[in-house]
Amino acid sequence: MLAWLEHLATQRRYAKHTLAAYTRDLHELVELSGNIALERLSEGHIRQFLSKLHAQGRQPKSLARLLSAWRGFFTWWVPQTSLGVNPALDVKAPKSRGSLPKALSVDQAQALMDHSALAASREPLTMRDRAMFELLYSSGLRLSELVTLDWQYFRTTDYESASWIDLQSREVHVLGKGGKRRSVPVGQKAITAIEAWIEVRSALIKPQAAHTDANALFVGERGRRIHPRVIQQRLADLSKGAGLPTRVHPHVLRHSFASHVLQSAQDLRAVQEMLGHASIATTQIYTKLDFQHLASVYDAAHPRATRKNTDKS
Prior knowledge:
This protein is mostly helical. It folds into two domains: 2-80, DNA polymerase, domain 1 (Orthogonal Bundle); 106-148 and 186-294, Intergrase catalytic core (hpI Integrase, Chain A, Orthogonal Bundle). It has 15 helices and four strands. It has helices at 2-10, 16-33, 43-55, 60-77, 106-113, 116-119, 124-139, 143-147, 188-201, 211-214, 228-241, 250-265, 268-275, 280-283, 285-301; strands at residues 149-150, 163-166, 171-175, 181-185. A four-stranded mixed sheet has the order 1-2-3-4. A hairpin with a 5-residue loop joins strand 3 and strand 4. Helix 2 packs across helix 4 (60-77) and helix 12 packs across helix 15 (285-301). The model is unreliable at 289-299 and 301-313 (pLDDT under 50).
């Protein structure tokens, strides 16, 4: 198992939180197997494990993620054993009702980005926050992708940028999930905010900082590459101050980006490429958000959308 996790970390470049989740999933597989060696597991065992967890109250979405991790491990491991077949290959997790991703309305997103706590401040960390949030909303980045960005491309004998922003071409180059690389346009609002942040950023960098910190686009007050938790908390505080009815997580800005671009452009394939989704089926969920938006406009505007027909035959 350790060899597979090392493979995901070094060859597939999986994020730390993903590796941590896979580690927990494999430990759970070992616990459920008990005295049965992993190379002796069958499809029946995997079904039995899932049924047991489902009966204990585990949600279908959690079981689907667990099964995905097991399936990936066995796909890698089976050729090295006498199993012959992946025991998790044809097993399906219980169906979930499925929930739509949370996204802000256009007005809510504008209110958040234009909030006075960001707009007028010349305090370096607030300027950084504005640049981060504008970029998240402008380009639909994942939180892990934002954290790994360098302020330009660097390549030396002992360091090479994995992800970076190119202000001249107005693009961000990202190494996303599964080592998949993509380039996404960056809007003018985000460019302006990032340029303003870069002007003050150097004051936070320590003279002898390691490359990973000295090259980072976004750093904390101690000059180290920013931690995801800091971004989450700063955005939550901003959304509360802006009076939004819900706590805004960085992924909400990614969902909002996808929903708003799709509403305007109606180009599902382009949104898929910008989000870095391996399957267009994953992107299609945003068409449901778009339909919800259209339906709410219809209900508010059409004279007979919500009124019951009281005509008698």
